[in-house]
Write a structure and sequence with these properties.
The complex is a heterodimer. Chain A is built from ten helices and no strands. By secondary structure, chain A is mostly helical. The radius of gyration of chain A is 19 Å and the shape is globular. In chain B, α1 packs across α2 (28-38), α1 packs parallel to α3 (42-60) and α9 runs antiparallel to α10. The chains are: A mainly alpha, B mainly alpha.
């Protein structure tokens, strides 16, 4: 099944395979193609790796359930981005309500994770630290700047595509991107982690 | 060949192109234009150097690999979850569709059969009885005797008796299933109807003015014992009518 799934690269091919009944193969191809994108978007919104993973699953289930309705007026990435953003926001709202009634024990869990990471070789630890620090700094940016930066820098999307996803003009996006890069540069320079 | 005139971009234009130039995302044309223009803005030149320096480290970081590692089992988990949801779907359907359908059916049944389920069994009889009692008050025993004591001709009486007998015979032949204990009631009812019908015909509408009065008399006769009726009939048979 895996080799067939890998052969399905074209979005139209994936959709037609899914609709015609080869669901598992098409779903595998679809998830593999967009899993990093969906997960990274969810992680930026939710800021928790486990929750981002769960949300990513929900996003793909929603997308697969509605894939026959996809009209291809926008790219699948744009469509998935919207689903991910909405699902993440809903998840955050639910989490907020839950945390209002119950104290979470996330701190203990994070500490445990940190101890495990110290067991890995020092270079890897350093790399992981930088990754985590960078993502934390990214989180400090305003939402629009953060999303513009991530979609342009990590996902290599065009301004036109990002404009459809975020509902902002191309000119506005360019300004946001410049501001995001400038702020990140300043913070990283100050923290001297470059 | 005419040399292309250099187009110097504004400060703002250089600013917004700066990140894409730093990360090598500009087209050749944009790149040339940017390089020609940035020399006019030394502070942006410095900024570009900082961005390049800081992001050199960022570019070495394998974010893509990190996300790939984190989502390694995502496709398997998604498919498992989809299959789990499929099996749960039938139960969801049961609660989602069957319960409301059942509710609607029960409501429909209650509306349709409501009379049988909720109406007290004796209500209709009680109403009829009430009406009968109320109506009976209008015509009392003395008024009834006036009706019964009215003079009728022998011929009329004989005709009425003949009709009664024949109708009773007809009815008995039709209702062969009438049990013995009901037979007396049937005869009494038919008899009283026929007799009174004939009487009304004979005495005209002066004595019994409305249909209600007629049925009130019938009700009165219903309440009489069989012996009383027989006595009345005997009395009627012995009536001597002056020629």
């Amino acid at each position: 099944m895996d080799s067939i799934a890998l052969a399905l690269e074209n979005d139209n091919q994936i959709i037609s395979e899914y609709v015609s009944g080869n669901r598992d193969i098409a779903a595998t191809a679809f998830v593999r193609k967009y899993q990093k994108f969906v997960y990274s978007v969810a992680l930026r919104y939710i800021k928790d790796e486990d929750d981002a993973y769960d949300v990513s699953q929900d996003v793909f289930i929603k997308a697969l359930n509605n894939i026959h309705k996809f009209r291809q007026q926008s790219s699948i990435k744009t469509w998935l981005y919207r689903i991910t953003a909405n699902t993440s926001k809903t998840h955050l709202r639910k989490k907020k309500i839950k945390s209002f009634f119950k104290f979470s024990d996330n701190e203990d869990f994070d500490l445990e994770n940190l101890q495990i990471s110290y067991e890995t070789p020092s270079q890897k630890v350093e790399e992981q630290e930088f990754e985590n620090n960078f993502l934390k700094i990214l989180d400090k940016l305003p939402d629009k700047q953060r999303e513009t930066f991530a979609l342009r820098y990590f996902d290599n999307l065009s301004y036109e595509e990002i404009s459809k996803m975020l509902g902002t003009s191309v000119g506005g996006l360019k300004a946001n991107y410049y501001q995001a890069v400038k702020k990140l540069t300043n913070i990283l320079k100050k923290e001297d982690i470059q | 060949m005419e040399q292309k005139e250099k187009k110097i971009l504004t400060y703002y234009e250089v600013q917004v192109l700066l990140p894409d130039y730093a990360f090598n995302r500009l087209s050749e044309e944009e790149k040339i234009s940017f390089e020609d223009s940035i020399t006019s803005y030394p502070d942006l030149q410095q900024e570009l150097e900082d961005v390049k320096k800081v992001f050199r480290r960022v570019e070495q970081t394998d974010f893509d690999g990190k996300f790939a590692r984190k989502t390694r089992n995502l496709s398997v988990d998604v498919i498992n979850k989809v299959q789990k949801k499929k099996s749960a779907f039938s139960f969801q359907n049961l609660t989602k569709y069957l319960v409301p359908t059942l509710g609607i059916f029960i409501i429909f049944l209650l509306v349709w059969k409501g009379d049988f389920l909720f109406k007290p069994k004796n209500t209709s009889t009680q109403v009829v009885n009430n009406v009968e009692t109320k109506d009976l008050i209008k015509i009392n025993q003395s008024e009834l005797s006036v009706v019964l004591d009215t003079l009728v001709s022998e011929n009329d009486y004989m005709l009425a008796s003949g009709d009664i007998i024949s109708s009773v015979a007809n009815d008995l032949s039709k209702n062969s299933l009438i049990e013995n204990n009901n037979l007396e009631e049937v005869i009494t009812e038919l008899y009283s109807e026929e007799v009174l019908g004939k009487f009304l015909h004979i005495i005209g509408t002066d004595m019994v003015k409305t249909e209600i009065d007629f049925y009130n008399i019938l009700n009165e006769i219903d309440n009489l014992e069989l012996n009383d009726l027989q006595l009345i009939i005997e009395e009627l048979e012995n009536v001597k009518i002056p020629s």
